[in-house]
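User: For my dataset I need records formatted as: sequence, then structure tokens, nothing else. Please produce one.
Assistant:
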Amino acid sequence: MESALARRGGCGRNLERDAMRSGGRIILDLSWRAAALGLCALAITHSASAQIASLPGPGPGDPRIKEFLYDPDAIVEIRGQLGYELMIEFGQEERIENVSIGDSLSWQVTPNRKATLLFLKPTSKSNPTSMTVVTSERIYSFMLNVVESADPSDPETMLRLRFLYPEPPVPVVVAQIPPPPPPPPPPPRPEDFNFDYAQSGTKTLYPVRVFDDGVVTYFQFDTRSAAPAIFVIGLDGKEEMANTRIDGDYTVADLIAEKFVLRYGKAQAELRNRAWSKRPKPQPAPLPQPSQSG
């Protein structure tokens, strides 16, 4: 029958005919036609079943330990044998959360205590059935088949299945461009400084230059002589030493004042800020208004 079908090149179209001639006409044997169509359907079914599931391949060691590169869209075929147990290994960080199987009477399914491994064992000869495993990370689809018992040393025997996983994508590191530095402050303008100081007393103590910027006062002394100590007249009218620091060629007092006193030994000079009276006076805060009731 197969040779006849092969010679005629097709299923259901060029059928083998039972040549029953009657009056010059060919009468097809309907029972023969049905048998041929059945064989055709069987061939198509077998071809489709080969594509239903992906069969894992042997690992680098014992060929009975199979490996499969995880694919979320793949259905993995499991071939179990009566009397043998099969173990499935998942990712190290995965935990089994749910297992669903179509024919739970023909297969025994048991996870280990840590829910990292799954043990399968067919209990009876049965038709193929499906199984879904949901872990904390992924979903796995299986097609379970009970195959004829074979020699346990046969390389085609499946005793263990280990899943492999694609390497995670390397994150693309985008270079962070630092923000541009803030623009430098504008250069000082002459009107930003007050040079209006009157000097009196020992002239050898006079600074070469004295001015303020409204916040601090700058003194430039002759480098050929020792710099005097700088005092300021406090609110109580008494002298107190000013808090100073060196900034380049200048001695900087961290305040502005109406009058400074320079002392070196018994020598003394005074510097009076003639722009002091022109400074804006702070305005007192307005008194709170009494609340008006009813």
